[in-house]
Amino acid sequence: MEMVIKILVGLIAAIQCYILWFEMFAWETKGKKIFTRFPNDLFAKTKEMAANQGLYNGFLAAGLIWTFFIQNADWHMYVSLFFLSCVFVAGIYGAFTIARKIFFVQAAPAIVTIVLLLINFCC
């Protein structure tokens, strides 16, 4: 189960890195393909705002990547739970405010990983 958890954490970190990339560096190109309901004329005007959002996704990715280097089992679990919970909350908020598909991209993988992490830690 530990390997499955590590794979999921790595996948979630990779998703956060991808979000960082398109929000910080490809907002006006890739962003238009992802956020199709967002008016095209606003992409240039919101470039800095999107970059700021992308930076926060980078912090989430960094935290998740950090968990791969934590040796203490308790500390590893607490840090993992914290960053996975942050991703989950961001995914829920995004699903309610932007698009429901954000739930499936961010929140669902995070909650599945949280549940597996708790089962693995408790048993």
Blueprint (SSEs and pairs):
Blueprint: H1 2-24, H2 30-34, H3 41-45, H4 47-66, H5 73-97, H6 101-122
Beta-strand proportion: under 5%
| Terminus-to-terminus distance | 11 Å
Helix content: over 70%
Count of β-strands: 0
Q: What best-fitting shape do the alpha-carbon axes yield?
A: elongated
User: Unreliable segments (pLDDT under 50, ≥5 consecutive)?
Assistant: none
Helix segment count? 6
- Which class best fits the helix and strand makeup? mainly alpha
Mean pLDDT: 95
Order of helices and strands: HHHHHH
Sketch the major β-sheet: none
User: How many domains, as an integer?
Assistant: 1
Radius of gyration over C-alpha positions, nearest whole angstrom: 15 Å
